[in-house]
Design brief:
The structure is a homodimer.
Chain A (H helix, E strand, L loop, with lengths): L3 H8 L3 H8 L7 H14 L5 H8 L5 E7 L5 H17 L5 E7 L4 H13 L4 E4 L5 H12 L4 E4 L10 E4 L2 H16 L3 E7 L6 H17 L3 E3 L6 E2 L6 H8 L4 E6 L6 H10 L5 E5 L3 H8 L5 E4 L2 H18 L7 E3 L3 E3 L5
Parallel strand pairs in A: 1-2, 1-3, 3-4, 4-5, 5-12, 6-7, 6-8, 6-9, 9-10, 10-11
Antiparallel strand pairs in A: 11-13
Chain A binds a DNA duplex through α2 and α4.
Pfam family, one (chains A, B): LacI
GO molecular function (chains A, B): DNA binding
Protein name (chains A, B): LacI family DNA-binding transcriptional regulator
Chain lengths: ~350, ~350
DNA sequence: TTGTAAGCGTTATCAG
DNA sequence: CTGATAACGCTTACAA
């Protein structure tokens, strides 16, 4: 294993000089720099993580983690939990993480919250992007200050950021289509239901992938109502019940997003013993139960643990070692859960 | 963050003494030991990994990785590849890994190979267990010497070992049953095929889980020939073709293990356009192709990367930090792959 | 039985 | 522009 000391010895300089070259710090004679660089290349120097971690600790890095947190967002809780675990893990690297839970979307509230984040002067920010001007200008201000940001869960490109960690919603819709096809032998009608249609940023992506996959590879399948979702909210399932009852030859139903898990019960009541495949996304505790009971046929998960932990890890690596993320978009795996492999 | 130095200061002893207590080394006055232990507890001391790694490096640990490697074992290649990556990663921790590829199963060959491993005096061993006396006695000898072993891929309990990393074959058969049920609406007949029946240690587990799940939760499904597999080898697919042709009402076929990927082609030829779900295990490159072509409906993967890397990681943690594995069996996730999420 | 000191590889701070 | 030195937290000889 070749170390900085080895390089320094062979170059006839001190460790400090080699360090300056490695970290592109000013104040090195171009000639010695060239010599050192050549040796780094030639000897195949790779920095030793443990040594770096130990030394970087003294900088006491400070990160901020922002997530929207409403009662209907069970999924965000899993992300938050993973992020807290990661924060605990990073503590021994001298990193502290401040968590900010966004609980409303009105501008004064948001501006006050973002001002607070800014005042705490974080070295990096992991955030669930919001489509509000308050958020956008906040991110832009932080960018201007050179504070790196990583987005998770929603892939918004209104401001430059270090990376995105989250679901590929289009592909996720395609997987849903594949599952529907599997459950129906590729023939028949499929209904669409959603708790939140146009307001949900993920809805469009999933529906795009779903319909695209259907028309490209599953000619025997068609969507009821041309893909217009039956919406349900606050315990009102009439649209969904109608969908099931008025389409007796419907073989499957795709629930694009769920807020109220009671919908599955209603669907099966309305189906009256008829075979109806139900495909959903995510795996809240309630959904695990529904899978076990056969009220959900299969669900597609999007690794909330990675969405919570990886953004903090990427920020740490960037700030501590100057390592840019390997890619700009880290798409989570689209795992399929059925009753037997939850 | 509380360090050994902090403890030492508060206890009025030196770092060395605290270290001795932490690592249960002899030569500490019971009274000071008690005082130090109390402080460790009270101050919530957690060892710092980076510091440990750096210090432990000097020991230059040496591991052995043994895997059976025949042409028909494509899956083992994925494990091997992951293990080599892990070995490269462990190099900067001062760890070297020797790889031994078992290419035959005759006793003289095996004994010579194991003798060679033994002579190299590894500090720990990761091995794919073999059901031969030569292997068993080798493991027992190493155990006697206090060299820890971790098994992967096959869960054999003939000798004590630190941990097992691999598939839960019984559960994996249950997942296959769940997929068959999904593809058939839970009704009809399912055929069984295998490249290797009784000789394959995983076959029994998978078939057990499969039939158990069917009888427990899928009363509408039954196995053709009572579960007797149609065997195929070396391009001879007659049994499988017969199975498909003679059971026109068969809705699905479960390929418990595959050596020859040509079987899928034959199955679909024999099916003559009839809808037939095909469920397999693993995801060799050839299988990816078959998934894309629709010749495999779904396949269940068992994380070869984890099977290759985790055993080495567990051995390192045990040898370097004395950390016992969190569990004795690390079952890999049973991920379901369809055409859309490979 | 206990303390001391060197070293693992890197970074940061001070002198020069 | 460069070198020396002191951390970061831990382990391990060796000395007392």
């Amino acid at each position: 294993m070749v170390t900085i000391k080895d390089i320094a010895k062979r170059a006839g300089v001190s460790r400090g000089t080699v360090d300056r070259v490695l970290n592109n710090r000013p104040g090195v004679n171009p000639e010695t720099e060239a010599k050192v660089r050549a040796l780094i290349e030639e000897m195949g120097y790779r920095p030793n993580m443990a040594g770096q971690i130990l030394a970087v600790k003294k900088r006491r890095l400070h990160l901020a983690f922002l997530i929207f947190h409403g009662p209907e967002f069970v999924f965000h809780l899993d992300i938050l939990h993973a992020a807290r675990d990661k924060a605990a893990e990073l503590r021994e690297f001298g990193v502290t993480v401040d968590f900010y839970l966004v609980r409303q979307l009105d501008t004064p509230y948001l501006e006050r919250l973002f001002r607070e984040v800014e005042d705490n002067q974080p070295d990096g920010i992991a955030a669930l992007p919001l489509r509000t001007t308050a958020f956008m200008s906040f991110i832009q201000r932080m960018n201007a200050k050179g504070v790196p940001t990583v987005f998770f869960n929603l892939d918004e490109d209104f401001a430059p950021h270090l990376a995105y960690v989250g679901c590929d919603y289009v592909q996720s819709g395609r997987v849903a289509a594949g599952l529907v096809s599997l459950c129906t032998e590729g023939r028949g009608q499929v209904g669409i239901a959603a708790a939140d249609g146009p307001n949900s940023p993920s809805f469009a992506g999933r529906m795009g992938g779903f319909s695209q996959e259907l028309s490209a590879n599953h000619p025997g399948l068609s969507m009821v109502d041309g893909g217009m979702p039956a919406l349900f909210h606050n315990g009102d399932f009439t649209e969904v019940v109608d969908l099931v009852e008025q389409n007796p030859d419907m073989k499957a139903i795709y629930i694009v997003n769920m807020g109220d898990y009671g919908v599955c019960q209603e669907i099966h009541r309305a189906a009256r013993g008829r075979n109806l495949a139900v495909i959903t996304h995510d795996l809240a505790p309630a959904q695990q139960e529904l899978l076990k009971n056969g009220l959900i046929s299969a669900t597609i998960v999007q690794q909330p643990d990675i969405q919570g932990s990886l953004p903090l890890q990427l920020l740490y690596e960037y700030l501590a070692f100057g390592t840019l993320p390997a890619k700009s978009k880290f798409f989570t795996d689209l795992h399929i859960c059925i009753s037997q492999n939850v």
